[in-house]
Amino acid sequence: MQKPESEIKILGFGSPLVDILVNIGDSFLAENVEGMKGGMELVDISVIDNILNKTPMEKSMVLGGSASNTIGALAKLGVKTGFLGKVGKDDMGEFFKKHFAGMGGDISRFKTNPDVRTGCCLSMVTPDSERTMRTYLGAALTITADEISDADFQGYSHLHMEGYTLQYSPGVALKVFQCAKRNNLVVSLDMASFEVVKQFRNQLPELLKNYVDIVFCNEDEAMQYTGTKNPEDIFNVLDGVCDVIALKLGKKGAVIKCGELKVSVPALLVKAVDTTGAGDFWQAGFLYGYMPIKQLTGKLLEESGGFAARLGAEVVQVMGASIPGHKWTEIISDFRKIENAR
């Protein structure tokens, strides 16, 4: 499965969104946002516009979307990356492409819908650090299977897909899976949420076995798939379905299994400001460490998990799915020292 580092180029597939971040008070949330505090709801863009027009606090924008968070973090680490998704012909679409290209990402695989606005997620953070999100998928939801071809995958060695695409565009997701395998890409899938797993529980075994090499899941997603939270039982159910199973256990760390190798990786416990993108960045760290490995051992698998834990811990200490530039310099230096010691 592993390739020389010079041959690695990872393509992401999912919903390219722009995250709009704002700190608000509980009173503003109660008075101006319908629905329960916390969690995420899909809404029309008019709902987000209305909330933003009433928000007095300063707003900031960063790239968002599950797969794009992972791919963006990999680009920051110096990995060659690209993204397959759809944006609108608007300021937010240009913002997304400009910033993704600025990280070194290939934007040639983006599709554009001139009639629908680019998707976005309004992330409202209250003083207790809890996020209440309202998401408009916009142009991302309009991508069709006919727009995707083998040409989109040529030159890439790996594909990372967010599980949300199964929920929003199952036919498109299947086309992406098929093209990736036809072009000999290694495929990783983030199960995304227990709701996605619940909805596609009957289809997932065949999809995982036929198309997926690396699966990422947390406890809730794994339980929805297997009916158990016991890691040993989870691995027994998933064993042989995918080459690599990465089970994320939050503050308890993670357990990663590859064939006969299985390692436990502790979490790095830090003070969390905003958990946006924690799982996405964790996956980026793992893929960064795992993909170039030529001869897999328990130690190298553990190091990859350590990279994952580091990125997950760094991103929760700031607002949004973003890590400050000076921190990236420090992270890359630390990762290089570990790699050079191999």
Folded structure, characterized:
With 342 residues, this protein is an alpha/beta fold. The chain has a single domain, classed as Ribokinase (UDP-N-acetylmuramoyl-L-alanine:D-glutamate ligase), CATH 3.40.1190.20. 39% of the residues lie in helices and 23% in strands. The chain has 13 helices and 15 strands. The chain has helices at residues 26-32, 45-54, 66-76, 91-102, 164-168, 170-182, 194-199, 204-211, 219-226, 231-238, 278-290, 298-315, 325-340; strands spanning 9-13, 17-23, 39-42, 59-64, 80-84, 86-88, 111-113, 118-125, 131-138, 158-162, 186-190, 214-218, 244-248, 254-258, 261-265. The strands form three sheets. The chain has an eight-stranded mixed sheet, with helices on both faces. A hairpin with a 5-residue loop joins β8 (118-125) and β9. α3 (66-76) crosses α11, α11 runs antiparallel to α12 (298-315) and α12 (298-315) runs antiparallel to α13. It is globular. The two termini are 19 Å apart. The mean pLDDT is 91.
Spell out the blueprint of helices and strands.
Blueprint: E1 9-13, E2 17-23, H1 26-32, E3 39-42, H2 45-54, E4 59-64, H3 66-76, E5 80-84, E6 86-88, H4 91-102, E7 111-113, E8 118-125, E9 131-138, E10 158-162, H5 164-168, H6 170-182, E11 186-190, H7 194-199, H8 204-211, E12 214-218, H9 219-226, H10 231-238, E13 244-248, E14 254-258, E15 261-265, H11 278-290, H12 298-315, H13 325-340
Parallel strand pairs: 1-5, 1-10, 2-8, 3-9, 6-7, 10-11, 11-12, 12-13
Antiparallel strand pairs: 2-4, 8-9, 13-14, 14-15
Helix pairs in contact: 3-11, 11-12, 12-13
